[in-house]
Write a structure and sequence with these properties.
There is one protein chain. Helices cover about 25% and strands about 25% of the residues. The protein has 3 domains: about 80 residues, Uridine Diphospho-n-acetylenolpyruvylglucosamine Reductase, domain 2, CATH 3.30.43.10; about 140 residues, Uridine Diphospho-n-acetylenolpyruvylglucosamine Reductase, domain 3 (2-Layer Sandwich); about 90 residues, Uridine Diphospho-n-acetylenolpyruvylglucosamine Reductase, domain 1 (Alpha-Beta Complex). The chain has 7 helices and 19 strands. The protein is an alpha+beta fold.
Length: about 325
């Protein structure tokens, strides 16, 4: 189906709010990305389900976009329909439960609603940019409250149930076991299921203590993570390596501050690449490849990207593989 025909067909199914050629950079935390051929904002979980079903039935490639964290959108954009999920309704339920549509923002929306109601369980995730759908997709996690920080707290621990749209178009309610949660993993990585809403089982807590946890976690993040407001990023670039840490390996190789164009390995956190102004997806990919090459040559570990690559990218040409602006030639035999 040609782009014009796709547009007409989607307008027939979803109405006049379907847009064409919408730049995606403003909708990502990296502030990088070319245009989507088609763009639709789903304001309710019903609209989200309708948009996904329309794309499937019309055989149009689609991508559901939340806050735009943990992704890199290609400079050439997305050849299909981007569904921006802004279904953000949420409400408290009896039995210390909190229900939310999948586009609801974990912080501040859900956390503030829970803490104001004296309900504990979500305060650990303060400051992490994520929607409810994104939280379930990656099994959102953070270290336990200070000062101990002795274990990782996962979103699966407070998930009671979720409403999903399955790959075959059925809306059903599932429990936590359905997601096969792991570290930075859920079954949503493997299945074309869409989270429409989720219910969290919380417990009564002391609002003052929860506020203390939130303040401590926000301070911890400020010390270690570049601020998204002034240094756009996608969060951690590479997957965790147990017992070592991807950021530690990158730091040991002296790569903090390494830069290609306006893409830079953060001087504050080695596993984060920041956009210094006008970084392109091609520059970010080139910097990722360079970091992988240096770390593998010097340590033997091959770093694997954690972020998702969405849309069409410029090829990694020789021009994009130029040495970083502040890096000396690398000799693996040194």
């Amino acid at each position: 189906m040609k782009p014009a025909s796709r547009y007409t067909a989607l307008q027939h199914r979803l109405g006049h709010r379907v847009q064409q050629h919408v730049l995606l950079a403003p909708y990502t935390t990296f502030k990088i990305g070319g245009p989507a051929d088609l763009f639709f904002e789903a304001r309710t979980r019903d609209e989200l389900a309708q948009a996904v079903q329309a794309a499937r039935e019309l055989d149009i490639p689609y991508f559901v976009l939340g806050l735009g964290a943990n992704i890199l959108v290609g400079d050439r954009g997305f050849r299909g329909l981007v569904i921006r999920n802004v279904a953000r309704a949420h409400r408290l339920l009896p039995g210390h439960r909190l229900w939310a549509e999948s586009g609801a923002i974990v912080y501040p929306d859900l956390i503030e609603a829970a803490v104001n109601a004296g309900l504990s369980g979500l305060e650990h995730y303060v400051g992490i940019p994520s929607t409810v759908g994104g939280a379930l997709w990656q099994n959102l996690h953070f270290l336990s409250p200070p000062p101990a920080r002795e274990r990782t707290v996962f979103i699966e621990e407070v998930l009671a149930e979720a409403e999903i749209l399955t790959a075959d178009g059925k809306r059903q309610t599932v429990g936590p076991d359905y997601f096969h949660f792991g570290y930075d993993y859920s079954i949503l990585h493997e299945r074309d299921d869409i989270v429409l809403a989720a219910t969290f089982q919380l417990k009564p807590g002391d609002p003052q203590r929860m506020r203390e946890i939130m303040a401590a976690n926000l301070a911890w993040r400020r010390e270690r993570h570049p601020p998204l407001e002034t240094e756009p990023s996608a969060g951690s670039i590479f997957k965790k390596i147990d017992g070592i840490g991807a950021g530690r390996l990158i730091d040991q190789c002296g790569l903090k501050g390494t830069r290609i164009g306006d893409a830079e390995v953060s001087p504050r956190h080695a596993n984060i690449i920041v956009n210094r102004g006008r970084a392109t997806a091609a520059q970010v990919r080139a910097l990722i490849a360079y970091v992988q090459q240096v770390v593998e040559a010097r340590t033997g570990y091959r770093l694997e990207p954690e972020i998702r690559f969405i849309g069409e990218f410029e090829p990694l040409s020789e021009n994009n593989r130029l040495l970083p602006q502040n890096a000396a030639p690398h000799h693996p035999d040194r």
